[in-house]
Specification:
Oligomer: single chain
Structural class: alpha/beta
Number of strands: 6
Strand order of the largest sheet: 3-4-5-6
Strand content: 5-15%
Number of domains: 1
Radius of gyration: 34 Å
Largest sheet: 4 strands, mixed
Length: about 400
């Protein structure tokens, strides 16, 4: 019986699940080497010439300032992104002559950049800054307008200059956009649609029209970050000036369609962009040529409308033909954008700089976007006013060749 009991125990040990664990504990089990633990080097430890730390120490980080050196940039606009915003005050993108010399002085008492009152402040100081007397600021702008008027500026250009300078001191957008732009100061919104400048031209209470206007402005608010990304990435095609030009054209496309003047084959402004290596004199010459050509087209269109109004025998007199409106230009070089005006009544007058903006500076994206919106909306409103003086649409349409 003892023999059978021992045999049963040996059989159970052979088939028992514990057999596997017992086998794992045998002496011939393979030893697994421990993983090597990296040693922590002290900050002052010496490294070899080819160590990773020595390579990191020799890396040359290319910042925005290193990318845009003064050698590659034209003498004007400002030579790099590494400058304070105040440096734009009194600077000009266009060579000015004659009466503009007094306006371009950089004395402390006379600064004519439309950005001069744009101040970056934190949330705690906003209420203190909000207490600035708007009436006093408006009076100061009126005094500037009188000086510009004496210097030969047109009334239309003076209005645009003052409107750009007053952004931040007066409401610009309808109150219905508050929830969409929660980060903007409440002072920029108004419930009075007559006081809102950046808004749809018609059907302001229609939700679809209001939505398109809001989306168009929202795209402008993203322009600054896209421009700086293009600078950092050194893209070859979608350059900083490409982004600025495209944003202006897209916003103008919405504004013209919103104003229902998209069938008029005329424009109140031209956009000219160029690489930062192009000299300012070349851009000025090309812009003047474009504006002169545009002025000739406007003059011809206004005369055609007078021909349609009067009898053929009488013909229109020169006194009855409306004057060509003030034309504008947008010059874009790298991250710099400038608004200029052209007085069509005085062809020999210099191109006058209204304002200069730098999208390479962080913290001014909203104010720069509002400047573009004000500029385009002003031109749209003028087009709506002038459409009654332009030829009938059927007279200006191209006549197709019947033989083709």
């Amino acid at each position: 019986m003892v023999f059978l009991k021992n045999a049963a125990n040996r059989l159970w040990e052979y088939v028992s699940p514990r057999k596997t664990q017992q086998r794992r504990n045998k002496d011939f089990k393979g030893k697994v080497a421990a993983l090597p633990s990296p040693s922590i080097r002290r900050a002052g430890a010496s490294d070899g010439a080819t160590s990773s730390l020595s390579k990191v120490k020799t890396w040359s980080v290319e910042t925005l300032n290193a990318v845009d050196t003064a050698v590659d940039m034209p003498p004007s606009p400002p030579t790099s992104l590494n400058h304070s915003f105040a440096e734009l005050e009194g600077d000009t993108l266009i060579n000015s002559e004659g009466n503009d010399e007094a306006l371009l002085r950089t004395d402390a008492d006379e600064k004519w950049d439309a950005n001069e009152e744009t101040v970056l402040i934190d949330e705690d100081r906003y209420q203190e800054h909000k207490a600035i007397d708007r009436k006093e600021e408006r009076m100061r702008r009126e005094a500037q307008g009188n000086d510009l008027r004496a210097a030969g500026w047109t009334e239309d250009a003076i209005f645009l200059f003052q409107k750009l300078g007053m952004r931040g001191f007066e409401p610009l957008m309808p109150y219905s956009w508050v929830e969409d732009f929660k980060s903007l100061p409440m002072d920029l919104f108004t419930r009075n649609m007559d006081k809102a400048f950046i808004k749809p031209a018609y059907d302001t209470l229609k939700s679809t029209v209001d939505f398109r206007a809001f989306k168009a402005l929202e795209e402008l608010f993203q322009l600054g970050s896209r421009v700086r990304d293009a600078v950092k990435q050194k893209v070859a095609i979608r350059t900083p000036e490409w982004h600025i030009r495209r944003a202006v054209i897209e916003y103008d496309r919405w504004a013209i369609k919103d104003g229902r003047v998209q069938n008029i084959n005329l424009s109140l402004f031209e956009v000219l962009s160029a690489d930062k290596g192009i000299r300012t004199e070349v851009m000025e010459r090309n812009m003047r040529r474009r504006l002169e050509k545009s002025a000739a087209a406007w003059k011809k269109a206004l005369r055609v409308r007078e021909d349609q109004t009067y009898d053929v025998a009488e013909g229109p007199s020169e006194s009855n033909i409306p004057k060509v409106p003030t034309l504008y230009g947008i010059l874009v070089s790298h991250t710099i954008m400038a608004f200029i005006s052209y007085d069509t009544a005085t062809p020999d007058a210099p191109l006058r700089t209204i304002a200069i903006f730098d999208f390479g500076l962080e913290g001014f994206d909203v104010w720069n976007a509002l400047a573009i919106a004000i500029f385009v909306i002003h031109c749209r409103n003028r087009m709506i006013e002038l459409q009654d003086f332009l030829p009938y649409i059927e007279e200006t349409a191209e006549i197709s060749d019947p033989d083709l």
